[in-house]
Amino acid sequence: QITLKESGPTLMKPTQTLTLTCTFSGFSLSTSGVGVGWIRQSPGKALEWLAVIFWSDDKRYSPSLKSRLTITKDTSKNQVVLTMSNMDPVDTATYYCAHRLGADVTGGRFDSWGQGTLVTVSS
Amino acid sequence: QSVLTQPPSVSGAPGQRVTISCTGSSSNIGTGYDVQWYQQVPGTAPKFLISANNNRPLGVPDRFSGSKSGTSASLAITGLQAEDEADYYCQSYDTSLSGWVFGGGTKLTVL
After folding, report:
1. Which chain B positions have a beta carbon within 8 Å of A111's beta carbon?
2. pLDDT tens-place string over residues B34-80
3. Quick check: A35 contacting B, CB < 8 Å?
4. Residue A104 has pLDDT above 90, yes or no
5. Which residues in A14-105 belong to E strands, given as ranges?
6. pLDDT-derived band of residue B32, with 50, 70 and 90 as boundaries?
7. Among A46, A109, A115, beta carbon nearest to B2
8. Burial call A85-112: b when 16+ CB within 10 Å, e when fewer
9. What is d(CA A105, CA A6) in angstroms, rounded to the nearest whole number?
């Protein structure tokens, strides 16, 4: 059974850097085809993909946020970390991590999701 | 503005059939990549529901079906039940963006 759980601060100030950790179980990020992604959802809005890291350490970022995002993995700890710099009130959202199932570093689906963590950005 | 376009809302009475459309372009749905559908009950995390080629997790009833044609995809729900009331999102991979894209979401109301 795959489980994922997000952790990190719930309240941020503008310009600060957000660090979120996704701790997972039930799969290994060393297995070919496996990835872990981050997706966020602003209140009342749609899902927005942010970043994905793969078993190969290949990484993909949303073009609109690429300059602000960094995704890393610690395979031994079963963790993936996302950092987002220069936080702004518009970044207030629930941040989800999810297991990406696919054959390679493109396509596929997010077939298991964490419960999400709400991050509020306010001065 | 989402890359994939969905109707904001659909509704139907219990037992009826509803469809939710998802329109994209030649760089996402129009490619060979599959389209995925997610169900999100308000206040909870999204859940993978079904893909356009009808891959579905265990536990998802066959009342849900997916399809794709050209640059569009559809989710059909037959025998509508009260528990189906949720938000539904489509998702694909975009080769121009080299990333994953979602639709704007569709709120399904069971009358």
Report:
1. 48, 57
2. 999 999 999 999 999 999 888 899 999 999 999 999 999 999 999 99
3. no
4. no
5. 18-25, 34-41, 47-54, 59-61, 69-74, 79-84, 93-101
6. confident
7. A46
8. eebeeebbbbbbbbbbbbeebbbbbbbb
9. 23
To which residue do tokens 């710099």 refer? Answer: A85
Rounded Cα distance, B108 and B111, in Å: 9
CB contact under 8 A, A110 and B89: no
In order of A4, A28, A107, the CA distances from B103 in angstroms are 23, 29, 15
Q: Write phi, then psi, for A110 (nearest 5 degrees).
A: -95, 95
- The one-letter code for the residue type at A46 is A
Question: What mean pLDDT value characterizes chain B?
Answer: 96
